[in-house]
Design goal:
- By secondary structure, this protein is mainly alpha-helical.
- It has three domains: 92 residues, Fumarase C, Chain B, domain 1; 235 residues, Fumarase/aspartase (Central domain) (Fumarase C, Chain A, domain 2, Up-down Bundle); 63 residues, Fumarase/aspartase (C-terminal domain) (Ribonucleotide Reductase Protein R1, domain 1, Orthogonal Bundle).
- The chain is built from 18 helices and six strands.
- The strands form three sheets. It has a two-stranded antiparallel sheet.
- The longest helix is centred in the first third of the chain and has 37 residues.
- The two termini are 53 Å apart.
- 39% of the residues are buried.
- The structure holds arginine (ARG).
- Arginine binds next to helix 6.
């Protein structure tokens, strides 16, 4: 028997039933489903629809169901279409006919939307904490790698030297925006659908404001049609997961390159590396490759849900059942991915000398142009002059630090001996002491601010 069999003569075809049943996916919603139902029973009593005794036995019965679920002794039946059906079926077995009163004035449409939002709110808290842990690892790295200078790239060509700490912190701030986004979307998710019933609102005098408060929502939904069909919170969550995944993927991509023999800037810890079944020497950065790969999968989940939503007329349509598969997969992925990336970052070894040696003297060209600017040369002329110096160096097999003063002066008369004094990566970095720049002082300030933001 299903919850809706009254008007049917025949049962559902067995394959159709497999397609229809969402239990394998939504059974993890049992804590939220039971909590929501307990609050609903009490709201029905407060509205005078149930007696206090009836509500009491429903609440206690639901608690017993919860305990069976927790201990694993709960037995699911073939006819349990979804978690809502399973809980109500078992409740009625335990408390008798009064169990049949729980669904008064309620539909699975407002019920599932309520359960799912409750789940998303508590899951978001866990994920927020996981991002914060990763951010802490980045700050820690930034603190211990403060003396490491490496080439900074644009177009993946060496551009200007930077502190490795500055690079770590660049990822901190992207993740900070991700946390912001997650917190922001939970504000919109904290709206209670319950009381909307199937689509038009319940006929019973439920105090939805009290119910909303009771379940920890900010306020009840303003429109029952919208409440039962709105899955913005699910789409926003998937966008959050996708963009966070993209941020992790970009960081992973750079670290994969930096861990190659050619770069050798970092060495991954064994705990986060894997070998090859054929090539004995291999040590592969699989965790970072999977990070990159998962970003693609996450984007696919977002695209899938948006595509599902775009054609739906109001209000509830069964297509909406697909929402949980996508969101659960994204959440489960993030729950593993974030701590793994944290582990990779906190255990890798930085090869300071390799980073320093990789810096080509040509990356000091901007500093040389700034040198001329400080002597009153317009920046455009300075740029042109240094460009010529770079070309001369290339043609003579030298570099910007080995060209002679004579050669420099043949290009521009404002070059004097002192040009060589600060023509090194350390000076280049430390000149960038502007707020947000890569100078050690500025990065230290940045780390301080990051610590404050994190608290
Ligand atoms: N399992 C369903 C879902 O996840 C619950 C809602 C069913 N509503 C309905 N009218 N059949 O969407």
């Amino acid at each position: 028997m299903t919850l809706w069999s009254g008007r049917f003569r025949a049962g559902l075809d067995s394959l159709a039933s497999i397609l229809n049943n969402s239990l394998p996916v939504d059974k993890r919603l049992y804590p939220e489903d039971i909590r929501g139902s307990q609050a609903w029973a009490q709201a029905l009593a407060a509205a005078g629809v149930l007696t206090a005794d009836e509500a009491g036995s429903l609440v206690d019965g639901l608690q017993a169901v919860f305990e069976e679920m927790e201990s694993g002794s709960f037995e699911f039946h073939d006819n349990d279409e979804d978690i809502h059906t399973a809980v109500e079926r078992r409740l009625t077995e335990l408390v008798g006919p009064v169990g049949g009163k729980l669904h008064t004035g309620r539909s699975r449409n407002d019920q599932v939307a309520t359960d799912f939002r409750l789940w998303l709110l508590s899951t978001s808290k866990k994920l927020d904490a996981a991002i914060a842990n990763l951010q802490k690892a980045l700050i820690h790295r930034a603190e211990i790698d403060l003396e490491v200078i490496l080439p900074g790239y644009t177009h993946f060509q060496q551009a200007q030297p930077i502190l490795l700490s500055h690079w770590w912190m660049s990822h901190f701030w992207a993740l900070q925006r991700d946390r912001d986004r997650l917190q922001d979307l939970t504000r919109r998710a904290a709206v209670l659908p319950l009381g909307s019933a199937a689509l038009a609102g319940t006929t019973f005098p439920i105090d939805r404001f009290a119910l909303s408060k009771d379940l920890g929502f900010n306020l009840p939904s303003q429109n029952s049609l919208d409440a039962t069909s709105d899955r913005d919170f699910a789409a926003e969550f998937l966008f959050w997961a996708s963009l966070t995944g993209v941020h992790l993927s970009r960081m992973a991509e750079a670290l994969i390159l930096y861990s190659t023999i050619e770069y050798g800037f970092v060495t991954m810890a064994d705990e986060y590396s894997t070998g090859s079944s054929l090539m004995p020497q291999k040590k592969n950065p699989d965790m970072l490759e999977l990070t990159r790969g998962k970003a693609g999968t996450l984007i696919g989940l977002l695209t899938g849900l948006l595509t599902t939503l775009k054609g739906l007329p109001s209000a509830y349509d069964k297509d909406l059942q697909e929402d949980k598969t996508a969101v659960f997969e994204a959440a489960d992925t993030m729950e593993v991915l974030l701590p793994v990336v944290e582990g990779v970052i906190s255990t890798l070894t930085v090869n300071t000398d390799r980073c320093r040696q990789a810096i080509h003297p040509a990356v000091l060209a901007t500093d040389l142009a700034d040198y001329l600017v400080a002597r009153g040369v317009p920046f455009r002329s300075a740029h042109e002059a240094v460009g010529k110096a770079v070309r001369l160096a290339e043609e003579t097999g030298k570099n910007l630090t080995t060209l002679t003063l004579n050669e420099y002066q043949s290009i521009h008369p404002d070059f004097t001996e002192d040009l060589f004094n600060s023509l090194n990566p350390e000076s280049s970095v430390n000149r960038r002491s502007v707020y947000g720049g890569t100078a050690k002082q500025a990065v230290e300030k940045q780390i301080e601010e990051a610590k404050q933001v994190l608290h």
